[in-house]
Design brief:
- The protein has two helices and 14 strands, in the order αβββββββββββββαβ.
- By secondary structure, it is mainly beta.
- The chain has a single domain, classed as monomeric porin ompg (Porin), CATH 2.40.160.
- The strands form two sheets. Strands 2-3-4-5-7-8-9-10-11-12-13-14 form a twelve-stranded antiparallel β-barrel.
- Strand 12 and strand 13 form a beta hairpin.
- It is globular.
- The relative contact order is 0.18.
Length: 298
Amino acid sequence: MKQQRLALILAFLLFSPIVFSQELDALLDAETKPQTTFATATFKSTRIINGHSIEQMKKDQLDFRISHRFGTLNSGLYGLYGLDQSVIHFSLEYGIKDWLMLGAGRGSLNKVYDGFAKVRILRQSSGEKFMPVHLSYFSSIEMNTLKFPERPAGTSNYFSSRLTYVNQLLIARKFNENLSIQLTPTFIHRNLVKTELDMNDAYALGIGARYKLSKRLSVNGEYYYNYNPNSKSLDPQPYNALSLGVDIETGGHVFQIMVTNSQGMREGSFIPQTTGSWLDGDIHLGFNISRVFAFNKK
C-alpha cells in the first residue's frame, strides 16, 4: 500500500505541471486569438453633405434633422446674397436595428414628401475577419405635391406622376483616422419628366470624402456625375452637383455648413435636377442640423 501511495504521489508531482502548463497555454491562446475590429466613425453624420453616407442610427436612436438652403450668392446685395430666399426640409430618422434605418421627411422645395430605408450589408473590419469596405443599400420614394398645371380637356393627371424612386449602393472605406472616401452608384426613376428629351431613368455616380481636422471638426466634399447625353439640349440645363462643407460636432448635435450649386436636398432633386453652375455664381449657402435622441437605456 505504501508503494502504491508513493507511486500516486510521484505521478501527481510529475504530471500536474504538464496539465497546468496545458491549461495555461489554452488560456494564452484564447487571449491572443485574433479579434475582429470594425471601423467606426467613417463619417460624422448620416449625410456627407447632401447625399447619404454609410453611417446610420443605431437601434432605438432617433435623428431629428433640419436642412436649410438659401438662394444664390450671385443674387447680390438686393437679395442679401441669397439669404432673402430659402427652402427647408425636416426629417425623422430611426434605427430599427443596428443594420436597418428608416426615415421620413417633408421639404418646401416642390412640397416634397419622402420616405427611405437604409440597410447595412457589410462593415469594414480587420483582424480575424477582414473586410476592406463598408457596403450599404439605400432606397427612397419621393412625392411631389405641387398643384398639377392646367391640362387640355380630355387629359388626366395621375398620382403616379408625382413619384420618384431612388436606389443607391453606398461603398465606403476609412483609410486612416483622418481620411474616408465613399462611392455611390445611383439609379433614379422619375415617372414623369418635363420633355421627351429628358430621361425617366437617370444614372449617376457620386463620390464623397471626409478629412478629419480634429476630434470635433472635419471638412467634406461631394460630387455627383450624371449620365445624360441630352443635358445640353434641356432648358434649363442640368449640371452635376458639387458641394463643399464643414462638420462641427457640439455634444448631441452635428452642425454641417456647406456651399453647393444645388438647392435640392433629396436625391431625386439634387442629383438629376441641379440647374446652378459654380462658374456662374449659382452657389447656395446651407446648413444641416442633426439632433440624436436615444431611447435605449443602455
